[in-house]
Specification:
By secondary structure, this protein is an all-alpha fold. It is built from 22 helices and no strands. It has one domain. Helices cover 75% and strands 0% of the residues. The protein starts with a helix and ends with a helix.
Length: 414
């Protein structure tokens, strides 16, 4: 029992550190797992590192490498510029287009963080040029990126689907994706129109000089798009492993010299990959020491079978305001679902998982989260950054309550 409490304490400390410092919590989790497992649990190093998610690691590396190449060679940037041109200068349509664009790109494979990093600077610049409030643009870009985050091809979707399969929910990739997409779409558009977006349809803007050149596709961009679309087709219709298929596509692009391979490797989100892998090792140790059972007990005391979806959405959302959704919150909470249902005397595992997924992502427009911070950093020079920070923070915190209510209504009592 002491070892169980010690391992649980290590996880709680790791979560708190992730909320309050810039230390990579994956590295900290590896150190905690090593100390607790070997020096307190009497395990061998091989037993501790057995929890390293090899398959997940390779999948994340393959997918992020392929889309890093697409970013480095300008393919994703050209897709974005061409999408802007489709709006024909209508200011009200522009934020909606950016929502669709970020959702589509995130769903195709880069994921929410990489897509927000790519799209936010252009979106916020267009907002300043077209008279669109930066706050409204941030809501649409941030929620659009999160709406596509649980795609089976995106890093967070890969993480979540892997955990869900391990705890007894395999084959739920597309329902998981659609639940998250629908929730973010409804809330984003409700917020956009309620906060004044409907007024923007009366205004127009002019494209900046140079936009035509930035939107022009060259041979390397068409080749990159063809490889990405081939991968998606192969995964959906022929069951190709997405990680290995992505590695094959990345090798092909490198051999054809359509992308700088070394620069693409440097652009990969190594910090996130290490974070997820390290936390997963610590979670695996918790399972071995029964520390996860204690974590489940703590959750069970906060909720009942009737309120499980709403409470789990609120708790994961509140922690996710300050911590990494994909690297810390979901890897820590999703494995608790089977034990939580057992203690509550029954429940819908998929409904609770969906509530955790949606609740944790809805708050990510907060400036304390990476997506919100990217939008804030890209704000036009004419924008009052401090005021924008306060608005985004208020939105993010309010999403803990909105997410709880939404998940309760969408997914039932759990």
């Amino acid at each position: 029992m002491n070892l169980a409490w010690l391992s649980l304490g290590a996880l709680i400390v790791a979560i708190l550190v992730s909320c309050t410092t810039r230390l990579n919590v994956g590295i900290l989790s590896l150190v905690f797992a090593w100390i607790v497992g070997i020096y307190f649990g009497g395990m061998k190093l091989e037993q501790v590192t057995a929890g390293f998610p090899v398959s997940l690691f390779l999948t994340l590396c393959g997918v992020t490498l392929l889309f890093a190449q697409a970013q480095v060679n300008g393919t994703l940037d050209r897709v974005a510029h061409n999408a802007v041109r489709l709006c024909r200068g209508n200011s009200g349509v522009v934020p909606i287009m950016f929502f669709v664009l970020t959702c589509t790109l995130a769903s195709m494979g880069p994921g929410n963080i990489a897509t927000a990093a790519l799209i936010a600077p252009m979106a916020m610049a267009v907002a300043g040029r077209g008279g669109v409030p930066a706050f409204l643009m941030a809501i649409m870009v941030g929620n659009g990126a999160s709406a596509g985050s649980l795609s089976p091809f995106a890093p967070t979707g890969i993480i979540v689907n892997g955990i869900m399969a391990r705890i007894g929910m395999p084959g739920m990739e597309w329902p998981t994706y659609w639940n998250n997409l629908i929730a973010h779409t409804v809330i984003a558009f409700a917020g956009y129109f309620a906060l004044g977006g409907w007024k923007l349809f009366r205004h127009t803007y002019r494209s900046a000089a140079g936009d035509d050149a930035a939107a022009r596709f060259e041979a390397r961009h068409w080749i990159t798009l063809a490889v990405i679309l081939t991968l998606i087709t192969a995964v959906i219709f022929f069951g190709v492993n997405v990680g290995m298929g992505a590695f094959a596509g990345a090798v092909l692009l490198a051999l054809l010299r359509v992308a700088d391979h070394q620069e693409s490797v440097r652009k990969m989100p190594w910090a996130v990959i290490l974070m997820v892998s390290g936390v997963t090792v610590l979670i695996a140790l918790l399972e071995k020491t029964q520390g996860l059972d204690l974590f489940v007990d703590l959750l069970a005391r906060l909720t009942s079978r009737d309120t499980a979806t709403g409470v789990t959405a609120f708790v994961t959302g509140l922690i996710s305001v300050y911590s990494s959704t994909s690297g810390v919150v979901l890897p820590a909470f999703l494995p608790t679902i089977p034990g939580l249902i057992e203690r509550l005397g029954g429940g819908d595992a998929f409904a609770i998982a969906s509530s955790m997924n949606v609740g944790a992502h809805l708050v990510d427009v907060s400036p304390l989260s990476t997506t919100g911070a990217l939008c804030l950093a890209a704000a036009p020079v004419t924008e009052d950054v401090r005021l924008l920070f306060n608005k985004l923070l208020a939105w993010g915190l309010s999403m803990t309550v909105v997410g709880a209510v939404t998940c309760y209504l969408l997914f039932g009592r759990g």
